[in-house]
Amino acid sequence: MAISNHKRLLFLLLLVLIAFGLYRYLAKPEVKGPPEMTVPVSVARAIVQDVPHYLQGIGTVQASADVLVTSRVGGTLMDIYFTEGQRVKEGALLAQIDPRPFEAALAQAKGTLARDEAELANARKDMRRYATLAAKDYVARQTYDQQVAQVGQLEGTVAADRANVRTAELDLVYSRITAPVSGRLGLRNVDKGALVIANDTTGIVRITEVSPCYVVFPLPEINVPLLTEALFVREHSDPAAPKPRVEAWSRDQRECLAVGELLTVDNRIDTATGTVMLKAIFANENERLFPNEFVNARVRVRTLKNVVTVPPAAVQIGSSGNYVFVVDRDNTVELRKVTTGINTGAVTVIEKGLAANEAIVVDGIDRLRQGSKVRVAATVETVRLEAMPSPMQTENTPRLLPNAGAHKKAGRPNAPESQNSGTPKPGGKN
Hints:
The chain is an alpha+beta fold. It is 27% helix and 33% strand. Mean pLDDT is 83; it is low at 392-430. The strands form four sheets. Strands 2-9-12-11-10-13 form a six-stranded antiparallel beta barrel. The chain folds into two domains: 35-64 and 209-430, Elongation Factor Tu (Ef-tu), domain 3 (Beta Barrel); 99-174, Helix hairpin bin (Helix Hairpins, Orthogonal Bundle).
């Protein structure tokens, strides 16, 4: 009986505790937490502007002329008339091989020619006399025929002698070694007094012409339609329009070395690398480009008109795509998905999802979520590309193209794609 009462007591006590807890829960006053924190951020405005579209590849500088000067005759090198590194014009005298052996050979060839010409003249007189006598049957017809054959033989001999004279004259001319093209001389390979061998692969000196010069660089095959539109379509629709401009930047992309134009695109794609080769021409009057130098080549293929742009730092990448934080008038942020275009390094093109003049967060993004309250601590100006200095307008940049004469004279003789190189920032990436 005592045990039963004890159980009742415990049961009643449990009911009381449950009722008290329920009462406390239902009657619990609302507890206000600390006020929501405001995140300091930096913002920028989306602006509308024209954006040039560049493609980039690592290129190699090629000289418009690269000639190894060799001697066409052998002999002793008597004199050298050039200095290493000197610029020379086509036809300039570079060296002189001892001409005396060639002068003697020429004199001998001329003497042999004179002797055989005299014999030929005498044989022709005899032939005419035999012709008269044979017509009167004073000599046998065979005698006349033999004389005719003799004249023909001597004529052949004289022709050979004249060829020998011409060869000797050429050898004498070739003893004067002249510059086959205009350009800058390299290091001398022989010294005065050395025995020069004809057509020696070592040569005497090398001449290279870098004004103008070429830059050859590859681009991924995916860019072929853009290149075709920029070059070939232009040629057919508007031949007077300028060709696409090409900029040659230093390897660290801090300095524009030269500006030229796109000359041509190769007629096939390299199946091994999936790239197509491009060739650009540069005036290079200040010789900033050096043969076999590696440069970052950037070709401007088009200009996007009136597109929305934002600083690249504003665009974030999430699991569902790209997005930005848009600041509303009440200083709350909206996470908005956007479709991005090319990135110049200075600005990013927004193709869809953002309107001009909207405020977007560029700094402090890591502490934001949908609906976060923000405080604008700083305002960043979105770069206007037209206000940036162009490498084509710098004081030290030479003419874009060589003059017509230089252009004609020049004809005698694997990098990942960058969506847009734009105008680089010092030390920045494209």
